[in-house]
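Write out the 3D structure for:
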Amino acid sequence: MAWAVAGVAGAAAPALALLAVAADPFPFAPRAAPVVAVGLMASGMTAAAATGRLRVGMVAAGLVGAGLVLIALALGRTAAGHLPAVAFAIAVASFSFAARGALFARSAGPRGWWIALAIVAGEAAMLATAAALPGRLPAWLLALLPAQWASMAVRSALGDGGTLAAWAPLLALGGTAAATLLVARLWPRRWPYLAMFTTWLAMSVLVLHHAP
């Protein structure tokens, strides 16, 4: 069941949403980035949580990200010159989301992928609200969401900002991934959670003040 959910939430639904976004006349990058971010999060976290393997989550998210980018290329909504920056953003986000999924597998066992799915649903709802009602959610709240970090990085890569403009969300994704893996490695010790949450809050502040 976990793989079916990952396939629907992480691949099929984002692909359909991206096709819908590509069909409208509005700027592509700001509307496509949240779709790609949610696809990476759903596939990477769920796959890693279901299997307990970081690499499985990274591969799953990477494949979904590559598929979504190929859709954008085939529809002529992004340029080939943006591919290196997009690939880097996808790789960093895939690593970060897979790390969270691996921790859920370690701490919650067979129920880990349910936790991953609940978190994906919550962050996806936040991003959907922010896209549908710009300015309705406060910036500080969005800055707390790793899905928003990934969306910022992908949006910058799809646009003209590239990788350097998105250094803060990319650093946040990588930094929290490292802290998360520390917790997973030292489980069941509890003290590493303090380091993980401190890192998350510090990275959120960084993104809030240095958003691309």
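The radius of gyration is 16 Å.
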